[in-house]
């Protein structure tokens, strides 16, 4: 196949992230971000990695159509335009694929219809993803457009893990089940962890901890997800930057009946004003650590709640897997906050889990082990690369179809 480039698009409600990759050697040719779309203060930051040049545009960009056209112009300035015959496909991150999409999918009208049907369970994400797809299709209608779903990796969960304990007919009618998210990251990191151990993914059991502003854990047995912490939405599970994570459902009824809060107010509270931010007013782990070192007890309590929940999931997924070969930390906090990694595994030596202090303190962009030499369970830091995973899945699908 002559065309070897893949453009990866991640469309948010007011942003557009993109990367152009050449799959011959998995190299990045250009990366960029358009933010504050629809505002007067829109900004496009574009970097051509071949020449190292970075350019910025500041000024109003009305919508995603205008944003992608501006991106196309920047790429063209570097000789990497969307009209290039070397462009094989455009890969789109789509957050929610439900149970219908279990693998990357070439987008057609039926696929668009199904993504639209899933908007009620992903009201913040799927509409933006659809906008990006339609805009890109209008610019290159002749080019394969591929959807890579955040939920797809988790569709291998067995029913006991995926089902909530509510009436099945009602659950099926309204598509209420545990879907999980961050799937491209969990897929990439679990596979890279196996490579780090010198083993095939099917021979390794891994607990993956994706710790960023959004956070999730997964239990991966032999390359297949068997449980994950996020559920119907990304609200369930770990304590996050602004999301509460696990919560007694009756708290919602209590806040409505006793607190007089509307459902929209409760939704905003749990998704945007809870988690670390709700507990101490900060969702930046670096700032929380600084405050702890200065003796701030509110920040300390927030951190301890965060770590307590994280340890519970590590223990739970250890039990789910039975045998664990590795625990892998990834994403912004997981990759960079050595104190979080140390606290999460403190006092778990009985499970074979420990970090080596010197190894844990090392910063780097490469996957690495931070467990002591000869540890029963490997502990790894594996930088995630969701764009590379989307590009690889997109290119593999286009290659199969040709």
Which range does the strand content fall in?
A: 15-25%
Low-pLDDT sequence parts: none
Overall shape = globular
Percent range for helical residues?
Answer: 25-40%
Q: What class would the helix/strand composition place it in? A: alpha/beta
Number of separate strands: 14
Q: H/E series, N to C?
A: EEEEEHEEHHEHHHEEEHHHHHEHHHEEH
Strand order of the largest sheet: 5-4-3-2-1-6-8-7
Q: Give the rounded overall mean pLDDT.
A: 93
Q: Helical segment tally? A: 15
Which value, in Å, is the CA radius of gyration? Answer: 21 Å
CA-to-CA gap between the ends? 8 Å
Sheet with the most strands, sense and barrel status: 8 strands, mixed
Question: What does this molecule look like?
Answer:
Helix 1 crosses helix 3. A hairpin with a 4-residue loop joins strand 4 and strand 5 (53-58). The chain has helices at residues 64-77, 109-117, 126-139, 159-162, 168-173, 183-196, 250-257, 263-272, 275-280, 285-293, 297-321, 331-336, 338-345, 357-361, 386-401; strands at residues 5-11, 15-22, 27-35, 43-48, 53-58, 87-94, 105-106, 145-149, 205-211, 215-221, 224-228, 326-330, 368-369, 378-381. It has 402 residues and is an alpha/beta fold. The strands form two sheets. Strands 5-4-3-2-1-6-8-7 form an eight-stranded mixed sheet, sandwiched between helices. Strands 11-10-9-12-14-13 form a six-stranded mixed sheet, sandwiched between helices. The mean pLDDT is 93.
């Amino acid at each position: 196949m002559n065309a070897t480039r893949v453009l990866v698009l991640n469309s948010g409600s007011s942003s557009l992230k993109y990367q152009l990759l050449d799959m011959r050697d998995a190299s990045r040719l250009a990366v960029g971000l358009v933010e504050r779309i629809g505002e007067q203060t829109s900004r496009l930051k574009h970097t051509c990695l071949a020449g190292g040049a970075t350019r910025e545009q500041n000024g109003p960009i009305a919508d995603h159509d205008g944003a992608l056209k501006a991106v196309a112009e920047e790429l063209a300035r570097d000789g990497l335009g969307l009209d290039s015959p070397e462009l094989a496909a455009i890969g789109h991150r789509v957050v929610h694929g439900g149970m219908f999409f279990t693998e990357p999918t070439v987008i057609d009208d039926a696929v668009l219809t199904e993504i639209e049907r899933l908007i009620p369970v992903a009201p913040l994400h799927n509409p933006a993803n659809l906008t990006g797809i339609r805009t890109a299709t209008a610019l290159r209608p002749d080019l394969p457009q591929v959807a890579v779903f955040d939920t797809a990796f988790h569709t291998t969960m067995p029913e006991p893990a995926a089902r909530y304990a509510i009436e099945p007919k009602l659950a099926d009618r309204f598509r209420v089940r545990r879907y999980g998210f961050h799937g491209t990251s969990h897929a990439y990191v679990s596979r890279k962890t196996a490579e780090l151990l010198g083993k095939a993914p099917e021979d390794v059991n891994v607990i993956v901890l994706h710790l960023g502003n959004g956070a999730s854990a997964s239990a991966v047995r032999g390359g297949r997800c068997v449980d994950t912490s996020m559920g119907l939405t990304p609200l369930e599970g770990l304590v996050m930057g602004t999301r509460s994570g696990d919560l007694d459902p009756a708290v919602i009824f209590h806040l409505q009946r006793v607190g007089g809060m509307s459902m929209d107010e409760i939704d905003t509270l749990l998704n945007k004003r809870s988690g670390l931010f709700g507990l101490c007013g900060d969702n930046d782990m670096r700032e929380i650590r600084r405050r702890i070192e200065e003796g701030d007890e509110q920040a300390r309590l927030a951190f301890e709640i965060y770590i307590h929940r994280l340890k519970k999931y590590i223990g739970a997924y250890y039990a789910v897997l039975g045998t664990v070969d590795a625990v892998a930390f990834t994403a912004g906090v997981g990759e960079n906050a050595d104190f979080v990694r140390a606290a999460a595994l403190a006092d778990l030596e009985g499970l074979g889990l420990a970090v080596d202090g010197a190894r844990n303190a090392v910063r780097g962009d490469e996957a690495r082990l931070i467990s002591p030499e000869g540890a029963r369970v490997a502990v790894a830091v594996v930088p995630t690369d969701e764009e590379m995973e989307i590009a690889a899945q997109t290119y593999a699908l286009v290659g199969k179809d040709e």
